[in-house]
Amino acid sequence: MLRDDGDLLVLALLVIVIVILFVRAWNRAGWNTTIQWSPVPIRGEVPALLEEEGYEVVAAKQRLPLQIYMGEKKMESRLFVDFVAQKNNRTYLVIQAKAKQPLRISGSALRDRFLAHVLAFQATGVLFVDPYTGTCHTVTFSIPGISSSRGKRGVLSHLVTLVLGILIAIWIR
Asked: Which positions, given as ranges, span the membrane (predicted)?
């Protein structure tokens, strides 16, 4: 049993702090803020092809501005994606094939072309769509030693810690 009102106050403050940490971790693990989601359905040849493959197109034409510094010199650039699609709660960047930029199928070529996009937009992978042939290739990256859970496990550990703390407090009474 709690000894006095001071114990109850400390327990209440502890629970509030843990809930705040839980909410902060949940927000960080939530929606990707670099993507501007479209409130209206997106139509077209590529979205139709992706829907046939089981993807939901949730955004179109994304541009991510970059600032690059080399010493004191500042340069600017951008990363572009044509669409953003989701499947099984995973976000994929959609990049269309271009006649002037054929895709070489090699590890280094795929890394050079898509890895920066996946890391910058915090996506699961890239869907490389060729509307001329009607094909869609999924490109994902696995980097040994780096977890791709994106914070969901941290939220679960906060929740387990909160429940264990409450159980210990009840047990001590």
From this structure: 6-26, 155-172
pLDDT tens figures, 80-111: 889 999 888 888 999 988 877 777 888 888 88
User: Residue ranges of the domains in the chain?
Assistant: 1-29+151-173, 36-147
What is the residue whose two structure tokens read 């991510």? Answer: 64
CATH class, 36-147 region = alpha beta
For the chain, report the end-to-end CA distance as a whole number of angstroms: 3
For residues 153 and 161, what is the distance between their CA atoms, to the nearest angstrom? 12
Backbone angles phi, psi at 38, to 5 degrees: -90, 130
Both tokens of 114, joined, read 């898509």
List phi, psi (to 5°) of 137: -110, 135
pLDDT < 50: residue spans in the chain: 1, 31, 151
C-alpha dihedral over 104, 150, 32, 73, to 10 degrees?
Answer: -70
Q: Which of 120, 115, 119 is nearest to 64 (CA)?
A: 120
Residue 127 confidence (pLDDT): 92
